[in-house]
Design a protein that fits this description.
heterotrimer, A alpha+beta (183), B alpha+beta (997), C alpha+beta (106), A: 183 residues, Gyrase A, domain 2, Alpha-Beta Plaits, 2 domains, six-stranded antiparallel β-sheet, five-stranded antiparallel β-sheet, 11 strands, C: 106 residues
Chain lengths: 183, 997, 106
């Protein structure tokens, strides 16, 4: 049984000479689903072009939109933009039907940085990290748990996890963080 | 220093003595020694007893293929490992090792009586000896087999070590860091590829470590090796030693087991002992070299009998002479060099016995120059010596006739029957092998993976051939990945290429039926056993293998396979390729369970999902149970209560006043889009069109086979938005099934599904005081029965948190389920718990939830249904929309099997005595007096003590049960037969009056 | 562990991200009520169970989430191709011809 972790606010989860594992503050998250025909209208309403290729990400100063599937995007935004995003989408629903569902509380984000951040990713993720370009993200699996893996820099990653799975993944990241430091 | 240690020789550190124990005696070795090399340096050759005959054995090899010298190693409490190869285990100060398979001692072993009675233990003896009488099985045969079976002793304590694992992606993985592997690594890395080079030994070099005489590119082999390793590291190659490629799986996935701490005296606290690497390589180069074969003759297993190449390794790598007086018996040139090296180091070579009538003239000349007797065209026919070889008996062979014997005294007998390419990993890929008449062995033929084989694996012999082939294969791998590189030509002087011939068992002048000529040392299989197997009708090599157990021990036949094949082929009168080879399977060498488990032990054993309220439950003494991947609060015992008492109290207090329950694990799916209602109509049995926003309905989900898959209460938030709930265990499965239909059957529907299970934390409040508790906290909603009746849903705030509020009941009491964003789950729970004190609010767990719902006859999908239950069987026919033309499962409900009489139907059961609680899963019969086996008509699916009903209640699936209300059935148990009456499934408040508060 | 090419992501990825989905090209009949009991039985339960190239479904469940189709040789456990769910059934003869195993390097 993994130890209890308070998931409601940012904190350091593990740190070593190899890597730093940090729980990030919650942000507003939405799952946006729509067909090809509605993409343009939604892009316009949101003010950001929805990326068309799986794994690609579009950003402005505060909002990040990641394409997760051929009809699926994840929108990340500061909390105070939540209402605006909902209203923008609702406004075009009649002409461009889609699904916007809030999932801000479904997921938590963990940041992994440090010289051996990539090695730490490889203790749980079967993908080749070299194939994940900086600035992109993929939904994949980490030690049996579905996760979105973001590559924010050469040695900087983010893992988005469903909340209930986080204790399991955090426990592994802690183990790996000290193991890599001792190598 | 002992007389067997050669000062200044080898790669061991002569100024760094190391003490360790073997069977309680302390020995001194050197840093860099293995247990085997250190013991041989101390004159100890006896290291174990054989598996079947308990014959004294010493190491026959110097590497991981060793079949004899298996020891137990102890590294502190709980850290005992059996069957470690003494030839692989490195020594460190304080290492404790023990021999195996002996009682009372290695030198005097009672089990050795088996050796005298060896005629009883011939091939297939398990099948022959233990046949009759039948009654002897339980008392004698099985205990005997169990006691005798197995190598070594299992550890008895939990393994305290940590294990690690990692994925690795590389362009080129090279297995084996001998000359071929090193050269291919250089070529591939020069092409700018990501290269990984692994070797099972403690240092890279392979053959070079045993052949320091060679000159490579003008440098002594060891100087070249050291410079080359520096160069490879500069090129960014990842080099891993003590790392065994255990298996070669589909699409160039290779499992590597890296040993990290077994060689260390003081490993860092908590450091992993082993790491499993799951490597995906674009190209694999197998450069694993070749393994030497023994010659098969009577007494070829005494301590002191060793492969000639291994003796050369002990001398050149470890600085240890294997004996003072050695005889060489060989059919291959390579053994001659071992003789020369040992002679130079001071061992007397009593004779070189070659089975070939005219061995290589240069070698004979060299032997003559050294004054070594050469006996060419000879056979070996026996040995003497109990705990160590004393002499070997050899005979001249002329025209196939074995002539008179001569006996040569020796304390070491070095044998070589030629070399077998190491193609185990290649065989894992299902790559095919082809018999090569010239080298008398199997070589790689058809390659099925992106893989190259380099060096001795392809039958190439000598350092020059191997190293240049390695460079070529490295370039070939680069080429396959679109990188061009020219393979360097590497010059090698003082190389020792050679040839040889292959044999079945050697000819003898004695009775072959009495010869103990070992083929498989680890399983004690002799040439005679193989021939007997063929005589007794085994025709396939696979049958011969299983009948004799040849090649089935932990060494997987590394030494015995080809000799076994040669003998079986000879006995069958066929050529080797017609007989074929048995299958090599992973792992290449025995691998610890810890390495396979990796991180998945202790608290990290498996994924454990926790709700936002889990921590409160833990702090408040909940006992947990696993439900799919979740852990859920099972019950909340108060001081001294057992489970029964706690559940009884929780049930009573909930029905009396108020209970609260963490229902966060309920699956939730948001269905959104203009076609949402159409989708719902197609998926669920129920009609949804007329369900108004703000209302909820119990939904029943079937498979297209008509059987119940899931159920749950579903709310309609707006025309185009539904909030589905699913069972806890069914959430992922249901979403997958819905996505399947949506993506592949109905892609035209404009509707999308999003899992919101974890968006919401769900608190269920049940009991007559439920409304009273939440009313003060709810804003934006009239909670009265008229405004918000049973089966309603609304968005509002609860205690200031945005919420989706359901009025719903899984207990039969007035009930609400509050969904708030997960981050607020625990806070809201605490607010309600605090405020609920005035109503004696009672937190309850899953067991109470189960009891309360069973009292109402509400089913649990997966407990009261088992994948063969239709809605009609479950008494839920009312949930099927009468006017629907299609939904998933509708057509199947009309199939003859599903409408036939006698289907098992869900009923209630009350035991006649009013006291006995039935066991869930217990079988039900109609006539308790019928003969065994009885006709079973169903089984109990749910059973509980019911406080509300005042007696135990149960649900059961019984053939034709719906037509049997009031009838008596019987539940036979080991100690008694229980009588029960079939009833309705609703035991409590059948009118539903309590919901209407 | 296999590598599987997801036709939607256009990446070749570890099998751990995928789940198997049974035989492909078995469409749910448009009007189930028109089907005889035997036809419905066949739709539900009867599968080809081939030894050799098998048309089957996979889902990129820990990825883009899409169901797609594949041809996998049940003898060698090798994928001959993968294609989107709405793409036509590929020509087996061409696939088999292109998947010949390699000869060893000389």
């Amino acid at each position: 049984m993994t130890a209890h972790v308070d998931l409601n606010g940012a904190c350091t989860l593990a740190t070593s000479s190899a890597a730093h594992v940090t729980l990030l503050d919650p942000v507003a998250r939405f799952s946006l689903r729509a067909g090809d025909g509605e993409r343009a209208a939604l892009s316009k309403a949101l003010g950001i072009t929805l990326p068309g290729k799986i794994g690609q990400c579009a950003r402005d100063d505060s909002v990040e939109i990641l394409c997760l599937g051929q009809d699926e995007w994840m929108i990340l935004a500061p909390k105070d933009q939540s209402v605006k995003i909902k209203a923008a989408c609702e406004g075009i629903y009649g002409d461009a039907p889609h699904s916007l569902t809030e999932i801000s509380d479904r997921e938590v984000a963990i940041q992994i940085t440090g010289d051996k951040a990539t090695d730490l990713i490889t203790i749980g993720c079967p993908r080749d990290p070299d194939m994940l370009p900086v600035g992109e993200a993929r939904r994949t699996i980490f030690d049996g748990v579905s996760a979105i893996l973001w590559r924010d820099g050469k040695d900087e990653y983010r893992l988005d996890l469903w909340r209930s799975f986080a204790p399991h993944v955090i426990s592994l990241l802690k183990t790996g963080c000290s193991e890599l430091a001792a190598e | 220093m002992t007389t067997y240690r050669v000062p200044g020789r080898g790669r061991v550190l002569h100024n760094r003595p190391v003490s360790f124990t073997f069977d309680g005696t302390t020995y001194q070795g050197l840093e860099g020694d293995t247990v085997a090399s250190a013991l041989i340096a101390n004159g100890v050759q006896l290291m174990g007893r054989s598996f079947k005959y308990h014959r004294p054995r010493g190491p026959i090899a110097a590497g991981s293929e060793e079949p004899n010298a298996l020891i137990g190693t102890r590294r502190g409490k709980g850290r005992f490992e059996p069957n470690t190869r003494a030839t692989v285990q490195e020594i460190w100060d304080g290492l404790e090792t023990n021999s195996q398979n002996k009682y009372p001692s290695l030198k005097f072993d009672i089990g050795a009586i088996n050796d005298r009675a060896y005629m009883l233990f011939s091939a297939g003896f398990y099948y022959k000896t233990f046949m009759w009488p039948r009654s002897f099985w339980d008392k004698y045969y099985e205990p005997f087999i169990r006691a005798a079976a197995g190598l070594g002793v299992s550890p008895t304590e939990p393994d305290p070590d940590n294990y690690a694992s990692r994925y690795l992606h590389t362009d080129v993985l090279i297995v084996g860091a001998g000359p071929a592997g090193l050269a291919s690594a250089r070529a591939a890395a020069t092409a700018g590829l990501r290269v990984t080079l692994v070797d099972e030994n403690s240092e890279p070099g392979g053959t070079l470590l045993s052949e320091p005489q060679a000159q490579i590119d003008g440098k002594p082999a060891w100087d070249w090796l050291s410079a080359e390793l520096d160069a490879l590291i500069d090129l960014g190659i990842r080099i891993m030693t003590r790392t065994t490629a255990i298996g070669y799986y589909h699409q160039n996935m290779i499992g590597l087991c890296q040993k990290l701490t077994d060689h260390l005296e003081n490993p860092a606290e908590g450091a992993p002992r082993e790491r499993m690497w799951r490597v995906r390589a674009k190209q694999v180069i197998l450069a694993q070299g070749a393994l030497e074969k023994p010659l098969v003759f009577d007494g070829n297993d005494r301590p002191g009998v060793m492969l000639a190449g291994s003796a050369q390794t002990y001398l050149n790598r470890y600085g240890v002479r294997v004996g003072d007086t050695a005889v060489i018996v060989t059919s291959h040139d390579s053994a001659w060099y071992a003789a020369f090296d040992l002679a130079s180091a001071g061992t007397k070579i009593a004779a070189i016995v070659d089975t070939r009538p005219t061995p290589n003239a240069d070698l004979v000349k060299e032997a003559d120059a050294r004054g070594i007797t050469v006996l060419a065209g000879y056979t070996a026919t026996g040995t003497s010596g109990r705990l160590r070889i004393k002499s070997v008996r050899v005979n001249k062979v002329e025209n196939g006739k074995v002539l008179g014997a001569q006996t040569i005294a020796c304390d070491s007998l070095l044998i070589s029957g030629g070399w077998t390419p190491t193609l185990h990993l290649f065989s894992h890929t299902k790559g095919s092998l082809k018999w090569d008449d010239e080298t008398q062995t199997f070589l790689p033929d058809r390659i099925t993976e992106d893989c190259q084989i380099a060096g001795a694996g392809r039958g190439l012999w000598g350092i020059s051939a191997a190293i240049n082939d390695g460079a070529a294969m490295g370039a070939a791998a680069a080429d396959a990945l679109g990188k061009s590189v020219t393979a360097q030509t590497i010059s090698v002087e003082d190389d020792r290429p050679g040839t040889g011939e292959s044999h079945t068992e050697l000819p003898t002048d004695g009775d072959p039926g009495r010869a103990k000529a070992f083929v498989d040392y680890q399983n004690d299989v002799t040439a005679k056993d193989l021939r007997l197997a063929v005589r007794e009708g085994m025709r396939s090599i696979e049958h011969v293998k299983r009948y004799t157990t040849n090649g089935m021990a932990t060494d997987q036949g590394k030494m015995s396979n080809i000799n076994g094949l040669n003998i079986a082929a000879d006995a069958l009168g066929k050529k080797q390729p017609e007989v074929g080879l048995t299958t090599f399977r992973p792992p290449y060498t025995p691998t610890s369970f810890g390495a396979f488990a990796g991180y998945h032990k202790g608290e990290h054993f498996e994924v454990t999902r926790k709700t936002p309220i889990d921590s409160w439950a833990e702090e408040n003494g909940a006992v947990f149970e696993p439900v799919s991947l979740w852990r859920r609060a099972w019950y909340f015992p108060k001081d001294g209560e057992d489970m029964d008492a706690a559940v009884r109290r929780e049930c009573r207090e909930t029905r009396k006043s108020l209970g609260m329950f963490d229902a966060s694990t309920l699956g939730k799916i948001e269905v959104v889009g203009p076609d949402a209602v159409e989708f719902m109509n197609r998926m669920y049995t129920n009609p949804w069109t007329k369900l108004a926003p703000g209302r909820t309905r119990y939904g029943l989900l079937l498979g297209d086979d008509g059987y119940i898959r899931d159920d749950g209460v579903i709310g309609r938030l707006t025309d185009d938005r539904f909030h589905i709930t699913t069972t806890t265990g069914g959430a992922a499965r249901v979403l997958n099934m819905m996505e399947d239909y949506l993506q592949t059957e109905w892609p035209d529907l404009k509707v999308w599904l999003t899992s919101t299970t974890e968006q919401w934390s769900t608190i269920a409040l049940n009991g007559p005081n439920a409304r009273k508790l939440i009313e003060p906290f709810v804003e934006g909603l009239d909670l009265s029965d008229a405004a918000f009746p049973h089966m309603s849903i609304a968005e509002c705030t609860v205690a200031g948190f945005p919420a989706r509020l359901f009025r719903v009941s899984f207990t039969g009491e007035l009930g609400f389920e509050i969904n708030v964003p997960s981050r607020h789950g625990r806070e809201l729970w605490e607010i309600l718990f605090e405020a609920g004190q005035q109503y004696d609010i009672c937190p309850y767990g899953t067991e109470t939830m189960h009891v309360l719902r069973a009292e109402k006859g509400f089913i649990i999908v997966g407990q009261d249904t088992d994948g063969t239950v239709t809605p009609y069987d479950a008494g839920a026919g009312w949930a099927i929309g009468k006017n629907k033309t299609d939904f998933v499962g509708m057509r199947a409900l009309k199939r003859p099997d599903l409408t036939a009489d006698g289907r098992k139907q869900l009923v209630g059961l009350l035991t006649e005595d009013g006291v006995s609680k039935l066991e869930e899963g217990a079988q039900i019969v109609l006539d308790p007096n019928q003969p065994i086996p009885m006709k079973m008509v169903g089984h109990v699916t749910s059973s509980y003590h019911s406080d509300a009903v005042g007696r135990p209640i149960a649900l059961a699936l019984i053939e034709g049960g719906h037509g049997k209300t009031g009838e008596t059935v019987y539940i036979p148990m080991p100690d008694k037969t229980i009588k029960a009456t079939i009833t309705s499934t609703t035991f409590y408040d059948p009118e539903g009056a309590r919901l209407k508060l | 562990m296999l590598l599987i090419h997801c036709p939607y992501c256009d990446e070749t990825l570890p099998e751990l991200e995928f789940t198997y989905g049974g035989e492909a090209h078995i469409a749910r009949p448009e009007n189930p009520a028109d089907k005889t009991d035997d036809e419905w039985r066949d739709f539900l339960f009867i599968r080809t169970n081939v030894k050799g190239p098998h048309f089957e479904r996979w889902r990129h469940s820990h990825g883009c989430g899409r169901f797609f189709n594949a041809v996998r040789d049940t003898v060698s456990d090798r994928f001959l191709t993968t294609y989107k769910a709405d793409a036509p059934r590929p020509d087996l003869a061409v696939l088999v011809k292109n998947s010949d195993v390699k000869e060893p390097s000389k």
